[in-house]
Amino acid sequence: MPYVNIRIAGSLSREQKAKIAAEITDTLERIAYKPKSYTHITFDELPDENWAIAGQLLDEE
Amino acid sequence: MPYVNIRIAGSLSREQKAKIAAEITDTLERIAYKPKSYTHITFDELPDENWAIAGQLLDEE
Amino acid sequence: MPYVNIRIAGSLSREQKAKIAAEITDTLERIAYKPKSYTHITFDELPDENWAIAGQLLDEE
Amino acid sequence: MPYVNIRIAGSLSREQKAKIAAEITDTLERIAYKPKSYTHITFDELPDENWAIAGQLLDEE
Amino acid sequence: MPYVNIRIAGSLSREQKAKIAAEITDTLERIAYKPKSYTHITFDELPDENWAIAGQLLDEE
Amino acid sequence: MPYVNIRIAGSLSREQKAKIAAEITDTLERIAYKPKSYTHITFDELPDENWAIAGQLLDEE
Fold first, then answer.
1. What is the pLDDT of residues C2-61, one digit of tens each?
2. Whole-angstrom Cα distance, residue D9 to residue D44?
3. Which residues pair with A41 in a beta bridge?
4. What is the C-alpha to C-alpha distance for residues C41 and F23, in angstroms, rounded to an integer?
5. Does the keyword Isomerase apply (chains A, B, C, D, E, F) (predicted)?
6. How far is the CA of E33 from the CAs of A41, E2, E21, in angstroms?
7. Which of C36, C47, D25, E46 has its CA 20 to 30 A from that of C10?
8. How close E43 comes to chain F (CA, Å)?
9. In a domain, E45, yes or no
């Protein structure tokens, strides 16, 4: 712990995921004093038709 | 917010997801007074072998 | 299953939760053909200072 | 309920998932007195590049 | 990882949580070959009025 | 979306949560091109006895 779950519609490149994981791990070390090795981060990339905002699936927009 | 996560075994058609999202968003507006634009809904469709009830995977039933 | 998790900032009255649960269960029966007894719904009510939108905790707004 | 969500990087065989579900359901019956039929267990198998520990994606290791 | 989230209505004693955590960690080591130190387990204990089955809050039953 | 859930054992001060939310929202804007207003972040602060690592509750350590 901490355990961080990031959910997005669409996908991220491997490079984007690597950078995001590095930055969030750094944020939690500096601000919450969590050693880097404690932080787990997971990415859930959902199809646009599996995410709705305001009652509409995102692939409608 | 609200953030609503719907998890099912098996899959739903795009049409089913659209209707479910529209109805739940409406429910939260009428009953919880959440403006429609605030509500996010995600669908997680799991393979039957990734869901167990009573200690048995659903593809055994 | 289905398993539905509803997360909001702030709280709902017992009556609101009862109505929301009844309506969503009904929605999933009519549209996704899930028998009512299959549907589990959970509510997570978070303090405003535990939810951020646009980088700001909700109790700042 | 209970609802148990197991998230791993990589994948499990069907046989592994069946055994894990059976054992955890048994654990919750013996220790928490939850009838077996109440327990739902889901498995989320994530690609290695979607899980980071210590700021590094697992496919880097 | 693995990351295991156990959600129940009502509460568990500290002793029950300790035993459940020990057994599930053991299960994942024997069956999924995950070293014990990798396994994180969290418990979410919800009020009965925050869990519905079949469209009814559990405190109605 | 994105929707980010941060789970920790113990608690964070309001100031820590504000800074973490601001930084992660910034990270997702710079790296994943998500407008700040899209990002929702939630914090779940769990009691130490509700989190286990290596089969031991954290309040044992």
1. 999 999 999 999 999 999 999 999 999 999 999 999 999 999 999 999 999 999 999 985
2. 8
3. A4, D52
4. 32
5. yes
6. 21, 11, 16
7. C36
8. 5
9. yes
- Judge whether E58 lies within some domain: no
pLDDT by 10-residue block (mean), chain D, 61 residues: 97 98 98 97 98 96 55
pLDDT at residue A34, rounded to an integer: 97
How many structural domains is chain E composed of? 1
Distance from CA of C53 to the nearest CA of E (A): 24
Tell me, what CATH number does C12's domain have? 3.30.429.10
Kindly report the number of other CB atoms within 10 A of residue E7's CB atom: 21
State residue F14 phi and psi, 5-degree precision: -55, -40
Three-point CA angle F50, B43, D18, nearest 5°: 60
pLDDT at B60: 86
- Asked if B40 reaches chain D (Cβ–Cβ under 8 Å), the answer is no
Q: Once rounded to an integer, what is the mean pLDDT over residues B6-22?
A: 98
D–E contact (≥3 CB pairs within 8 Å)?
A: yes
User: Is E32 within a domain?
Assistant: yes
